[in-house]
Amino acid sequence: MLILANLELKRLKLRLDANPSLESLVTKTSDYSEVRSSVLEIGIRDPLLVRYYPDHSLLVETGVQRTLIARELGIFNLMAFVYPFPDPLAPMPNLHGKKIMTVAGILSEFQSQDVSVCIDLLDYVRRGTIIL
């Protein structure tokens, strides 16, 4: 199951949150600066990929830079593709959004030219981590 949802930023966790000193390794790169400049110019256009755990926690799988930038800029909500983990067929109560049922449905939600995030997501589908 894959759901496209508008999530409150404060609900999203990053692996970096457990070790804040690692955050500077991400934020001090030229790539981060480029993404930040793009966000300032056109906003965050593509959804994150987020794992939904049985305890209802949400972990950002792809989109770490965009999440950090949103925190820095005070953005309150982000669009995200959310899938249940570790069981790809588990229900996701308390999560409302648009059910994505096809690869075409995934592709239709991307607006930027950065295909790397889209390729990552499609690989999750190919491997069965996400079931449409």
Structural features, described:
There is one protein chain. By secondary structure, the chain is α/β, with parallel strands linked by helices. It is built from five helices and six strands, in the order E-E-H-H-E-E-H-E-E-H-H. It has a six-stranded mixed sheet with strand order 2-4-3-5-1-6. Strand 3 and strand 4 (58-62) form a beta hairpin. The longest helix is centred in the N-terminal third of the chain and has 13 residues, at 30-42. The protein is globular, with a radius of gyration of 14 Å. The mean pLDDT is 92.
Show unreliable segments.
Answer: none
Q: How much helicity do the residues have? A: 25-40%
The main pleated sheet reads as: 6 strands, mixed
Sheet with the most strands: spatial strand order = 2-4-3-5-1-6
How large is the radius of gyration? 14 Å
Beta-strand residue percentage: 15-25%
Number of helices: 5
> Can you tell me the number of structural domains?
1
Span between N and C termini? 5 Å
The structure class reads alpha/beta
What multimeric state do the chains show?
A: single chain
CATH architecture: Alpha-Beta Complex
Output mean pLDDT. Answer: 92
Short characterization:
This protein has 132 residues and is an alpha/beta fold. It is 35% helix and 23% strand.
Secondary-structure map:
Blueprint (H helix, E strand, L loop, with lengths): L1 E7 L3 E2 L9 H5 L2 H13 L5 E5 L5 E5 L1 H10 L3 E8 L13 E3 L2 H5 L7 H13 L5
Question: What are the main properties of this structure?
Answer:
132 residues; 23% strand; 35% helix; Conserved hypothetical protein from pyrococcus furiosus pfu- 392566-001, ParB domain; alpha/beta; 6-stranded mixed β-sheet; 6 strands
